[in-house]
Amino acid sequence: MPSRNLLLINGPNLNLLGTREPHIYGSTTLKDVETAAQQQASSLSISLATFQSNHEGAIIDRIQAAREEGVDAIIINPGGFTHTSVAIRDALLGVGIPYVELHVSNVHAREAWRRESYFTDKAVAMICGMGVYGYTAAIEFAARHMKTAAAKEKL
Questions:
Q1: Active-site option among 99, 103, 118, 145
Q2: Which of 31, 53, 124, 152 has the maximal Cβ count within 10 Å?
Q3: What is the rounded distance in angstroms from the CA atom of residue 104 to the CA atom of residue 77?
Q4: What is the CATH number of the domain that holds 70?
Q5: What domain range includes position 125?
Q6: How many domains does the chain have?
Q7: HSE-CB of 95 using CA atoms within 13 angstroms
Q8: What is the pLDDT of residues 48-69, one digit of tens each?
Q9: Which pLDDT score is estimated for 1?
């Protein structure tokens, strides 16, 4: 089976998982999330790269590099950039890599402005409100999506 490559991107303030508003985001740290994600990806024969930045340009640079690296799918938790970044949206569309939008909290049950996303309409899936388990669900979905896409390419 050919190697499948997955990129997990976390946006601003997600480095504070585990300490930032634990009543909303829980007590699991980003390092814990990434460790579990690596183990899950490995069990699915997927190569997983992780990236976190509080800087919009760094996230854009990482997305653009993903195409050159042969990344097959992206999981992105854009954090606060969800509601503000046309530039990250354009980068995702520009590289043509399918992506899953992910949020730890249920953005639809929070402030009205959190319900607006620049990413959802072009995402292959959107996961929210599952806590950090959403990362597990996103990896499982991405694995299935990559497998289906690879099968279609063989036809």
A1: 103
A2: 53
A3: 8
A4: 3.40.50.9100
A5: 4-154
A6: 1
A7: 25
A8: 999 999 999 999 999 999 999 9
A9: 45
